[in-house]
Specification:
five-stranded antiparallel sheet, single chain, globular, four-stranded antiparallel sheet, 18% helix, alpha+beta
Amino acid sequence: MSTLICSFDGLHDNRVLRYCADFEAHTLHMDTQTEAGEKVSVRFTGLLAHWFENVIQDNILFGMDEITVDGFFQQYKDLLGGTISYGFPACCSIEELRKRMEREHIRVFVIDSSLGLCGFVLAQEVELQCP
């Protein structure tokens, strides 16, 4: 069973210049740059939570995929098992998180790394802005 919904072109080998989460506005904005020097901005809206690891000075993305909610719970089962009781991501139980994601139409965006930053973003929408 495939958990992939879609892949986002335009981010492969992009360098992450900056990212900023605005918790009041429920947004996460990431600015990246292609090998040719073109800027690509990624804007997540309806942000529920994000989890990044291996963040370093020169992060290079491999890509970003949207996966199914079921795929998210399979792929991140161990992480969620250790964090859900501390309120991450934004719920007290796996069942409550699943219901909230369904109710609020939360999608799962997985960011893969060539170097450094990787993880996921739980948000309602994503928009890539290219020149």
